[in-house]
Structure formats: structure tokens, C-alpha cells
Amino acid sequence: MRGPYRTPEPPLDDALPPPKDVGARRSSHPRMGARGAVALLAGASAVVNLHEHGFVITGWFAKPAEILFDDVDAVYFDFEGLVPRPPQIDLVTFDGRHAILPRDLHDLDRVVAALEREVTRPVVARAKEAAARGEPLRFGPLGVEREGIVLHGKPLAWKDLRRVHAERDAFVFHAFGHDGRFGGVRLALVPHPRALLAVLRMHTKVVMKGLELPG
Questions:
Q1: Total H helices, total E strands in the chain
Q2: For the chain, which domains are there?
Q3: What is the pLDDT along the chain (215 residues), one digit of tens a residue?
Q4: Comparing C-alpha atoms, which of 176, 122, 146 is closest to residue 1?
Q5: Type and span of the H or E element at 184
Q6: Could you give the CA distance from residue 57 to residue 138 in angstroms, rounded to a whole number?
Q7: pTM of the predicted model as reported, rounded to 2 decimal places
Q8: What does R_g of the chain's alpha carbons equal in angstroms?
Q9: Where are the alpha helices (DSSP H) in 58-205?
Q10: Any residues with CB less than 8 A from the CB of 192 and at least 6 apart, and which?
Q11: CA–CA gap between residue 188 and residue 170 (Å, rounded)
């Protein structure tokens, strides 16, 4: 990949390194903005052709959409819904294009396996290396820093973070003290959740409470 991290704004303090965005959703990367989704296809009618550098999705009512692995900046999973089912996957490219892979897409498992191999694993490795150096990372609305986390602008030190619950559709943070629950973030807003899991496990206890990422 061409580096999975982005700096959406200059650092406030020149003495500190800017936080590295792990495929964070920027204003130029709206979920359904002016550019919209390049592939929102009915699974039963869509055909996926994998090749060495990416894949092409073709559907009966949309023109073929090619996604190259090297162009993928962020991968989002959306498990939301009352009935357990495969996730909807939203891919965001470096130039702001979206490819939405619906839950019933034929050969979804093969596409997810390829994304895991070509996109997610390199991102996880780079995120862990950056975290080991103490560099701040940003996963959408969640910041992971040397001293702790910053959730929706609210900081919590590692020593005060009791555990993290990885639920089917959210990450929930529990703090020590009488209040217990510190806050949560929807899984659908977190780019590269597997990288976030790896980084959190370097600092605190993570309890799997229903989250089963494909791949």
C-alpha cells in the first residue's frame, strides 16, 4: 500500500508529531457525498472478478467498478441490524471514491480474504509499529496516543481504562471507578477495526463480546 495514514490537519504543537490517520473519514471522503458510491450492487446480480492487483465488480444496472488494492485507504465494516448476518463493507480509496460491497454479494468471502491479505495485514503491521514508537493514531472518532485514548474529544489515560468490549457493532470502553462505562464508538465509523484491536491489545485488556470480523 501507499501508506495507510493521513494527516487531516496540521499539528497544534510543532514539537509533537501529527496524529496518523488510519484511513480516517475526511470531509473529502463522505460516506455518500458528491462522488457517491462507485459500486452499490445487488449481491445476486453482481459478479466479482479478482486479479493480482485488485478486483472488478459488475452488476446489471451499474457500470463495472475496478478497485485496486494499492488504492484502498480505509475498510469499514457495518454489522448493524437486529439479525446477525455478514457485514456490509465500505471501501474508501485515496481519491475519495467508495465501493460498497453488500452483505449478499456473491463471492464476498473471496473478496474479504483478498482485502485481508493485501490491505488489512500491512495496515495492522504499520499501526503496531507506529504505536510501539508512541506515535498518536486516529481511527475515525477515536484517537490512540502514548498516554491513553481520546474518544470524541474526551481523553482517558491507559491507567484509568479498565477494559474494552469489542461488541458486534461497537467498541465500548470501560473505566475504573463508579461510573464504569466511559463511552463507545460504532464499528461502522472505525477504519481498519482489526488494526485498532491490535493496537488496543498492546495497552489494555480487550474482551470479545460478539465482534467477529471476516477474513
A1: 3, 17
A2: 24-132 (2.30.29), 137-209 (no CATH)
A3: 344 443 333 333 334 344 555 554 332 333 333 334 444 444 556 778 899 999 988 875 567 888 999 999 999 999 876 667 788 899 999 988 888 888 888 788 889 999 999 999 999 999 999 999 999 999 999 999 999 999 999 999 999 999 999 999 999 999 998 678 999 999 999 999 999 999 999 999 999 999 998 86
A4: 122
A5: strand 181-186
A6: 30
A7: 0.80
A8: 18
A9: 108-115, 121-132, 193-201
A10: 4, 22, 23, 74, 75, 120, 123, 124, 127, 139
A11: 8
- With cell 473505566, the residue in question is 175
The three cell numbers of residue 140 are: 475515525
Give the Cα separation of 141 and 124 in Å (integer). 18
* Cell matching residue 32: 455518500
Query: What is the maximum alpha-carbon separation in the chain?
Result: 56
